[in-house]
Write a structure and sequence with these properties.
This is Thiamine-binding protein domain-containing protein. It holds the Pfam family Thiamine_BP. Belongs to the UPF0045 family. This protein has 106 residues and is α+β, with helices and mostly antiparallel strands. The chain has a single domain, classed as Alpha-Beta Plaits, CATH 3.30.70.
Amino acid sequence: MPKIVASISVVPIGTSGTSVSHYVSRAISVVEKMGIHYRVGAGFTDLELDDYRQLASLMEAIEAELAEMGVARVDFFVKVDRRLDADLTIDGKVSKVKVSTKASDH
């Protein structure tokens, strides 16, 4: 089971327009090729990872893919939630918040 949930945002810089959805779609295709479980959000994509090496490999692969599209610079924004004592999943994190929210609704 994964022990890291990382939230990642990939920002190509120096593109010809303001839309980046086709770059994001290409980055997601890299995630899929690597067999990583993910969930796309409005600004970040959540990933379930086994270790930091997997995150680094993914970032390198995304960078290479975007370079093939003509992108000369890429900013990555990454947030990592690391558990040393238990497995960690996207669904588990979300469900805990939903349970907590229901408990506080009175």
